[in-house]
Amino acid sequence: MSGSDDPWAKWRKPEAAEPPAAAEAERKPASTVNRENRPKLKSGEAAPARERRAEAPVRAPRAKPVVVETPVEETPVDPTGTLSVRRSAPREPGKKPLRGGSSLRKPMAKPAPVAVAEKPARAPRSAAPERPKPVAGPVVREGPPPEGVRLSKVMSERGMCSRREADLWIERGWVFVDGERVSELGTRIDPNAEVSISKEAKHDQAKQVTVLLNKPVGYVSGQPEPGFTPAITLITADNQLKQSGDPEFKPWMLRSLAPSGRLDIDSTGLLVLTQDGRVAKKLIGDDSQVEKEYLVRVAGEMIKGGLDLLNHGLELDGQPLKPARVKQLNEDQLHFILKEGKKRQIRRMCELVGLRVIGLKRVRIGRVKLGDLEVGQWRFLRADEAF
To answer: Which residue is catalytic, options 167, 190, 204, 264?
Structure first.
């Protein structure tokens, strides 16, 4: 094989020239070289080990091949660790290295390019006219309207109980319409139908209590406000004014006990709290005609014709007030009788005629009077009392 056909010729080093001494020693027989310097031995005496080794033929050192380095461009390789750097292996010029494998791996054939059909250009969309938004209107129900009136509403309007109590009694089967038991909520009946309740409903209603409280200043009558105490916290055994025939106070009596009517935090006097829906409807219902009587202490100078305006002619929150009965007892005290109870109504009425309320006390609700009930005390509504 000629040098041009040898693929490893350019990496093989030329053999180095042998030194003359080594060549001459190689041409001499080894026995001749060793015999010249070896001392003569007596008969039967063995040669020392050193001399035996020296007698072994001496081989000339093999010349190391000379490698001719060809400058090769190195491709920088990212380090594979934190303590060492992987150096790129030399490659033949013009040959691309293989990624992730041996350099002897055959290159993968590139897939033939796939012709992709171009999509036709879409015509610009014309601006569509805005659709008018549907206007919310009344919900129209299909079919004829339901006949009759809800049973619970009829019972509430007749003063038999509250609508909440009526629903509870209907669920328990304590209500009868024209002699037939009704136990389904939402039942509609003829407004003129006969409605009655069972003995269980009457017994349950008899256990409901109504109390009268002389509310002090600083207590709120309804929902508690931050930093203030609701008036119901005064209903305890220690604050009770006991009367003959009254039941013994039990903690369960506070359950569902709610005020029927407002009394401002700066006002004092008679406040009614009840579990009976009939009493609540009579006192605070939309069609209530129960009178409330107040003694009011005022300051300031009333405008001309102010007393007539207090009786009738004022409006609050854009609505005219019902006729009232107001008279002046002395220079700083007025007497009010109302049939409605808007929020802070008396105070706002007095401000409209130039007066400022500095004290307000409710002394009567319907036919029930405050009497000798002291501030902070309460008592049960007697069986012979009615609003």
So the answer is: 264
